[in-house]
């Protein structure tokens, strides 16, 4: 049993790492698209895009993923991409918000609806779950044996920078800001030497819900299937 337990723990950590890596790649893909859309797909003349590309490479994001994001922004091959949001409920009544970027709305809607149905959920109408989320600036700082961070000092620094809240976990600190204050807070903390594993403006559940044990696998499956969809940019839930 101990061997199985050890393998299970290792596999669990690997799955968590893979999930986090997938979220980072999704976030980078959104940043690439946004930067390229705003200033063009040539990094030599678009410094903002160049910074995101460097960040993507540092995160070992596959070249194909980077190019796909740039193609979407440039409308390569005559494609015209639209930004869409899908809302629905997953297992245990957990609200799910899906942000997509697509050149074929019928394909994407059908695929997203199929994923919800596959895991016992249901796609809803516009506005059916979005009211349960707030848009927030989000900064994540990883904690490990090599990272010595004084929690009290970080709390003081983030308040001085203008952040609203901080949550502490065994493996990370999470800092929340108002969207407009996000750039200022991020830059102030960067100047103090903090390093972020994730820094973005995202959707945060107002009232996170505990997921019953017998529904956790189904919900994780739904989120994973949605995130694997090339048209999907981000997935948010009200799960704790």
TrEMBL record:
Keywords tagged on the record: Cytoplasm, DNA-binding, Transcription, Transcription regulation
Membrane-spanning segments: none
Similarity-based family: Belongs to the TACO1 family.
GO MF annotations, alphabetized: DNA binding
UniProt domain TACO1/YebC-like second and third: residue ranges: 81-238
Name recorded for this polypeptide: Probable transcriptional regulatory protein GA0061074_10373
Domain TACO1/YebC-like N-terminal: 5-75
Pfam families in alphabetical order: TACO1_YebC_N (PF20772), Transcrip_reg (PF01709)
Cross-referenced Gene3D superfamilies: 1.10.10.200, 3.30.70.980
One cellular-component annotation, GO: cytosol
UniProt-annotated stretches for the region Disordered: 1-21
GO biological process, one term: regulation of DNA-templated transcription
Compartments (UniProt record): Cytoplasm
Origin superkingdom: Bacteria
């Amino acid at each position: 049993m101990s061997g199985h337990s050890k393998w299970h723990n290792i596999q669990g950590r690997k799955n968590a790492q893979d999930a986090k890596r997938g979220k980072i790649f999704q976030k980078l893909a959104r940043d690439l698209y946004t930067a390229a859309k705003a200033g063009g797909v040539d990094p030599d003349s678009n410094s903002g895009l160049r910074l995101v590309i460097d960040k993507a490479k540092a995160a070992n994001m596959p070249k194909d993923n980077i190019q796909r994001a740039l193609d979407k922004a440039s409308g390569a091959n005559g494609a015209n991409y639209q930004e869409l949001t899908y809302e629905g409920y997953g297992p245990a009544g957990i609200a799910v918000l899906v942000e997509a970027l697509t050149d074929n709305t019928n394909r994407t809607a059908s695929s997203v609806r199929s994923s919800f149905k596959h895991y016992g959920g249901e796609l809803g109408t516009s506005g059916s779950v979005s009211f349960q989320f707030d848009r927030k600036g989000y900064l994540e700082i990883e904690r490990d044996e090599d990272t010595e961070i004084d929690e009290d000092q970080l709390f003081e620094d983030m308040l001085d920078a203008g952040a609203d809240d901080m949550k502490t976990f065994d493996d990370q600190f999470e800092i929340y800001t108002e969207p407009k204050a996000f750039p200022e807070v991020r830059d102030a903390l960067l100047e103090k030497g903090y390093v972020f594993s994730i820094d973005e403006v995202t959707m945060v559940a107002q009232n996170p819900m505990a997921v019953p044990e017998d529904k956790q696998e189904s919900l994780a499956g739904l989120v994973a299937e949605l995130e694997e969809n090339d048209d999907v940019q981000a997935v948010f839930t009200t799960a704790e």
